[in-house]
Design a protein that fits this description.
single chain; 9-stranded mixed beta sheet; Immunoglobulin-like; 5-stranded mixed beta sheet; alpha+beta; 3 domains; elongated; Rossmann fold
Length: 496
Amino acid sequence: MNFLLLFACRTTVNTQTDIQTAVEDPAVEDLAPTEEVQVSIEVLPQYWITDTVTFSSTDKVGEILQYKWTCNNGVTGTEPTLEFTPDQSGEIECSLRVSGLDNEYTTTANTMVYAAAENAEWTILVYLGGDNNLEEAAIIDLNEMEKVGSDENINIIVELDRSRSHYQGHDNWYGAKRYYVVKDTTTHPESDFDEVVSIERMSLGEVDSGDPETMTDFLHWGITEFPAKKVAVIFWNHGWSWSLQSSTPTIKGIISDDGSGNDISIAEGELSSILSQISEDLDRPIDLLGMDACVMQSWEIATDAAPFADLLVASQDYVSWAGWSYDTFLNDLATNPSMEGLTLANHIGERFYESGDLTISTVDLTQIGEFNQQLDELATQLMEQPAGILTEVSRSTYSPDGGEYGNDHDLFGLLNGLQSKSLSTETLEQIDILLDQQSTLLPHNHVDSSMSNANGLSIFAPPAQNWELDNAYFSASWAEHQWDELLAREQESNLQ
């Protein structure tokens, strides 16, 4: 903030000298009078609680003035610059009285000091992996978070990794920074999005956001520095299903970093190692795990994450460039910060769906253990039926990449399709058991009416011969179950 005070002085007064004494000093009286004096106060709009707060006053001829600072936190001073370390958060307003021989002016400036909430209900940790062609979208989503900002109940914490080449705006810095997200009260044209105003807590320089250690370090720091009753972890980036097209290899990952060429592998255990460490740090499961990325709501990811998180919120289909609606669901949370994880998951889904996206659902990971026992039983029974039934059903079941080409297919759609086949009574009864668990396993499924056959959870069920039996799928955490055995039997039948 800048304040301009203009006034004329007859002589010079040392800032440490009483005005009356200065007038009686012949040496002072002999000095030629000066003309206008400019005085301004500058202070940053916000600080962290451990920062040195600086209110700076400058003028053209400083020796002719006396200064008196008085702040609402009890700090005073008589120098042109006032510096102190705050002892509490909140707004600090400092009044400056500037005195000359014939004039006296008073003006004020204020700033905000932030600190981690002592009894926060939620800490929201968002890993914005923007070192790729989504860089600009990452900054836009950070701006959305700033429409709400952290408060005494909610900590919104972000690590943003930027690219060297994709987006040149917002100072065009490169590398990664960690932010405590604060509310942005400035206004900008509707055609533009705001500058980042959040408090930079750490500048990391160049990092590999596709390295599990980078992600683990951020999450550990976040929950340590910003403890709360409940914690949400959101991974933001590109996401891949097991195969996006029939010609691509069988992969699964999230968080691509263009600088390093790396991403977080799920089949190779990198995601579970991250979640395991954070769950250990919390001494409990993560309350909500979110994937703001394409095609990440699958049985495999849910099974992989289940030991370390209670809820998984993600999309079966592709996510638009704009991603989740952070401003609206965070506003819902700020209005009701005591909401439980399941309620927050529903708000995330509703707000995302309202923005025009296609699919988003919630998996109750506390229920997937029982579900997997029943799915294992079904897989065992299907292996006693004629081969090729699952492959046939998958071709007419929803996939984000089309029935004939996609490798991930809707799990409950598969179950419904199997019901129409000539299977044993025991197998049909087992399918009914699994279908009865759908509403419990998937408490929320927000889906566009044009995609009503997307029931909220996909599973690897390829209809074509575009994968190999020695890929990572068959050694991942979910391979302890029977589904991969069923797939292997189906593939062997296809190749005959």
